[in-house]
Write a structure and sequence with these properties.
This protein has six helices and six strands. By secondary structure, the protein is α+β, with helices and mostly antiparallel strands. The protein has a four-stranded antiparallel beta sheet. It has a two-stranded antiparallel ribbon with strand order 4-5. One of its GO terms (cellular component) is nucleus.
Length: about 170
């Protein structure tokens, strides 16, 4: 008998044997959990909405709140490399998110600006438009307003970014 060990990965590991019936039950339970998670996410958004509405006027009174917030966020600060972007951002006074009524995970971000030398728009809107997944019985409700299409939602595939139209000043 050899004392040599097999190389890592040489052993075949098998998962538990599951009958087709049990696999179907687990798939159904997984879908139910996913639906409940979507319901909870929607309820959390509804529950927090009054808080966001109450917070909004307070943030407007804090000098340079939004420009500083954007500059301090690692994800957005990478996109603020040009001095012109930073200069324009200095005029941002409010930010608001409007959720899509059919799929709240898609939304429009409203950027509210003070009068500035860059563009004449007071509000710029960046929309992530909901493109419903093409699934069988997509409109069929699974649980508390959640449809089959909602369960198949993937932001990268079903949240389509729309172009922003800006009225630039000369």
């Amino acid at each position: 008998m050899s004392n040599k060990r097999a190389s890592p990965g040489a052993e075949v590991t098998l998962g538990p044997e599951i009958s087709d019936e049990d696999a179907q039950k687990l798939t159904k339970l997984g879908k139910d959990i996913a639906a409940r998670e979507v319901v909870l996410e929607r309820r959390a958004l509804e529950y927090l909405q009054p808080h966001y509405e109450n917070r909004r006027p307070i943030l407007k009174t804090i000098k340079d709140f939004w420009p500083r917030a954007f500059r301090n966020m690692s994800g957005t600060s990478l996109h603020l490399q040009h001095q012109q972007d930073l200069d324009a951002l200095a005029f941002l006074e409010d930010l608001w998110i409007v959720r899509d009524k059919d799929e709240p995970r898609c939304f429009t971000i409203e950027f509210h600006f003070k009068e500035n030398p860059f563009f004449s728009d007071s509000v710029l809107k960046k929309e992530y438009k909901y493109l419903a997944p093409q699934v069988e019985d997509g409109d069929k409700e699974v649980l508390d307003g959640v449809t089959n299409a909602n369960l198949e939602f993937d932001f990268d595939q079903h949240g389509a970014p729309q172009a922003i139209k800006i009225q630039w000043k000369d």
